[in-house]
Amino acid sequence: MAAHRLPVPRRIPLLHRTFTTTPPRPVAKIALVGRLAADPELTPTSSGQDIIKYAIGTTSGPRDNRQTSWWKVTSFTPEGPQRDNFMALGKGSLLYVEGSCAMNKFQDREGNQQSAMSIIQRHIEVLDRRNGDGGSGSGEPES
Length: 143
Prior knowledge:
There is one protein chain. About 10% of the residues lie in helices and about 45% in strands. By secondary structure, the protein is mainly beta. The chain has a 5-stranded mixed β-barrel. Residues about 15-20 and about 135-143 have low confidence and may be disordered.
C-alpha cells in the first residue's frame, strides 16, 4: 500500500514587503474647528510667500463646564486673492484648519528651556465669516 502524501502549501509573499522597502513615516496631523482669537497678522517675505500667524480657540466639555484651548497657527501663503480674502477675516470667524504639529523650543527671560506646540496650516475652510469690525458676513466656505 502506497503512503498518502499531503499537498505541500505554497509560500505566499508578505504584502508589506512587496509594496515598500522603507518603514512608514510618523505622522503628526491635526484638524481643528474653532474661532479666530484676533485678526490675523501678516509678515511679508522677499520670496513672495508671506507668513500669516493667528490663533484659534476650540471649546470642549459639557455646557456648564466648558474648557477653551488656544492654538497658534502659522500659514505660508503666496500673494494673491486667497491671502487677501484670509486677511479680511476678523476676530470670531469660524474656521476649519488642517495641518501638522511643530514643536518650537526657546529660552524664556529667566534662561529656562521651554517648548511650545504650533500648527503649520496645510488647508483651511471658512465656515462663518466675520468682518474685521466684528460684524457677521457671508457663511460661504473657502479654501
